[in-house]
Specification:
Layout lengths: L2 H22 L7 E5 L17 H10 L4 E5 L7 E4 L12 E4 L12 E4 L8 E5 L5 E3 L1 E4 L4 E5 L5 E3 L2 E2 L20 E7 L6 E3 L2 E2 L2 E7 L7 E3 L2 E2 L13 E6 L5 E4 L8 E2 L4 E6 L3 E4 L2 E2 L13 E5 L5 E3 L8 E2 L4 E5 L5 E3 L2 E2 L13 E5 L5 E2 L7 E3 L6 E3 L11 E4 L2 E3 L6 E3 L3 E6 L2 E3 L6 E3 L9 E6 L2 E3 L6 E3 L11 E5 L3 E5 L5 E7 L9 E9 L5 E5 L7 E8 L12 E3 L9 E8 L17 H19 L4 E7 L30 E3 L6 E3 L11 E9 L3 E7 L3 E3 L11 E12 L6 E15 L31 E4 L3 E4 L8 E5 L4 E7 L5 E4 L8 E4 L3 E4 L20 E4 L8 E3 L11 E2 L2
Parallel strand pairs: 1-2, 2-4, 3-5, 4-7, 5-8, 6-9, 7-10, 8-11, 9-12, 10-13, 11-14, 12-15, 13-16, 14-17, 15-18, 16-19, 17-20, 18-21, 19-22, 20-23, 21-24, 22-25, 23-26, 24-27, 25-28, 26-29, 27-30, 28-31, 29-32, 30-33, 31-34, 32-35, 33-36, 34-37, 35-38, 36-39, 37-40, 38-41, 39-42, 52-58
Antiparallel strand pairs: 43-44, 44-47, 45-46, 45-48, 48-49, 50-51, 53-56, 54-55, 54-57, 57-58, 59-62, 59-65, 60-61, 60-64, 62-63, 63-64, 66-67, 66-68
Amino acid sequence: MNASTTFRLVRTLVLMALLVGLFLNATPASAANLLVNSANDNDDGYCDARHCSLREAINAANADPGWDRIDFNIPGAGPHIITLSRPLPAVTDNQTWILAASEPDFAGQPVVIIDGRLLPADAVGLAIQSSDNVVRGFSLVNFRRTAIEVTGSRNEIAGNFVGIAPGRFSEGSCDLEGGGASNGFGIDIEAGDGNIARDNVASCNGIGVDVGYSATGTIVAGNFIGTDPSGAYAIPNGTGVFVYGDASGTLIGGDEPSERNLISGNRTGILILTNDVRASGNRIGTNAAGDAPIGNVRGLEVHGRNHVIGGDTFGESNLISGNTTGLEIRGENITVISNMIGSDSHGVARVSNMVGIVVEGSGNTIGNPASANLIAYNMVNGVFVGRVHAPGIPGDLDILGNVIHGNGGAGIHVYEGEDILIRANTFYENEAAGVDVGDTRAEETVQRTTITVNFFERNGWEAILLSPGANGDIAPPILTAATRTSASGTACAGCIVEVFRAEPDPSGSGEGRDFLVSVTAGTDGVFAATFAEVEGCQEVTATATDPEGNTSEFSVNRVVGRCTAPPSPWLSAVILILGTAGGSAFMPDLRLGPLRLRGALRRLLGGLAGLAGGGAVLVIITLILGNVQTRQTEEPLPPCSDFLNENLSLPPFSAVFEPGTDVLIELSPQPDPPGSQTRWRVEVTGWQAGSRELTRATPSVRLSEFGFDPQIPGEYFWQVTGERLDQDGQTWEVFCEDFGPRQFSIQRPTPTATAQLPTSTPTPTPTATPTPTLATPMVIAHENAFCRYGPSQVYEAAAMLNQGQSAPIQGRSNDDNWWFVLPPGERYGCWVWAGAVDATGDFSGVPRRQAPPTPTSTPYGCWVQPCGQCPLVCTLPCPPNAVPGGACTP
């Protein structure tokens, strides 16, 4: 079982425990339904219909064992501000739901505000010391220590504003420098197992969400941390999420869009000082849409051991962009996979960090071939490697299978460290070197950096650049000979020599683009390598890696095969001969002429020959094509657009496809091919794995045939080269090139950027049955909506369907006002009001589903004494002469 599956299982079990426990206790004999009807902080010892403060309700719930529900109906228009005169009592009884979202004027944002401005500095707003409780729909401000403190297990803190009050914030309104943080700790989970903080807005706190001491299995999901509720601008915390102490097994985010945290605008987005934490699926340093920066100073700073940043699936990919430093790795055995660092949420545009990743630690892994990171568009380096080992301890940093491009400095700069493996990465269009090893300013030189089987193209400096002393000053190989199938030369004795087809670099060395083969040099340093045939007039290059793991720069390139490109034809002589009927003409061999000139010359000379054969004046034109020369550059070939119909070739430029579309690349050749047998070489470049190419006689190929996954969003470029058999029918030669590059992209629709807060469901009104279609029946929530155990508000909420979430329809109520759906991540279905969702699809097969038994609600009355000597009588509704403070059940 992989880590991602384990976390999903833990999350599911925690939610099931909450839901099953609450369901089994939905109507226990001892259950208390309490209603807060006053915003004052008085306590007369009772919670009744005449007066019930939040303080009184918590005391009553604590005194009543078992499940309790505290709802709100404070008269008047909100916001309803509860200014505490002294700390509230801690919640000590299990299974207490405190639901400020039940306040009638709640409309997507909290309207019940708990204000701690009058409390001493060590006071806590809400202290949850028991288990299986829910706190939902509050705003908590001005607690100099902690707004919400959790020490029990399996509690859910959901849909709250922690640090800001509704309608009372603006961009930059939280002055951290001036001590203006609203709360010290926003949500502080200090102990217990399986606690959940979800769908909160935690901004303007010293620490937004704090997980520490002995807390285990905590889930932090779906929150906006450091921004306004829409995720459009910063309202910063000092630290967004802080995990420390003995806390372990913490999950920050998840693999579903609803579990994504937006952690932006803070000094530090996430700070981890413990072990075994997973951060997946978050947006760190951007706005909610993921297309503009709201930067943290540090996106993630990770200490400790055994963390996972990202995950095996695209849904677990973090977007870490717009920060000063995207990710700082300062611990050990940390795995970083499937993230986008420096780009937008589609991986195609700049939302730059200053530096993508900074690594100072040992035993860490960045990427793997199956779960590449995209490290792109950062203003300086994509990856900066500092000291990656302690004295006497090997570093063992592996950077594997990533796509690293478009960075303003080097793709990877290894400043200090030892035992670093850089393998199977794609480097292109970085403004400095692809890999820069060493620095004259470093305290120690870099040793044993192994650079192997990577792809380099169009980087500003050398593909591999070694500073003096780095990697033992290993010299690059010397290629003494090269053909289309072999290369030989000298290198260091016993070194591994890797041979590449080169993308020519202005330096004359590298860049090694396509790996061809690796061989080991003999004790005398001589090596000979054979490989699959490459085209003529290509360049090859090589690196050497010694037995200790030091890799050289690329060698000086060698051209393979002959580049047969004669100079332009020139007129040598014109001889006019009076012809006769028996005259003849000389037709030169034009195979060596430039392609566009050949046809014109054939037509001209063919016409002259016809004149000569008819007895006219014979003109013999001798074209001296010159000696065949071997040169390092070819004469320009015509573009393939001369032989292809651009308007009919697919896909069109800048086309956009949904994830899962196996895009068809289809060419439309002109009817007059430039040879008896032709074929087309199609090259596709995508951020998943760099450039790949296929050759086809038929002009169509699918994206998946290149090995790209059509499910993964990204930007792709494709271009075409034409080839034909020469006149001997033995060798393929290029006859046209540079059709393209053309661009298309696969993009995931961006979900609506709203804070995910629960809403109370209004009384339903009948709606018309949706018009059936042939699609699978689904609902999409156009607002946050409770999903209940039955088709009525009298049933308890089983789950939440957040705005923008979809769920399959499995049934409908008899009055067509409720849909029975299966929410994302839930094992059991529940009922959602039709007025809160948009229903689509074919409803003809949706069955009518019987509602479960209606729960019996317990009405509360007041004690009345009819006469002076009469016994008290429980009366509903409460009359004016009710005994003060006495709540009862008739």
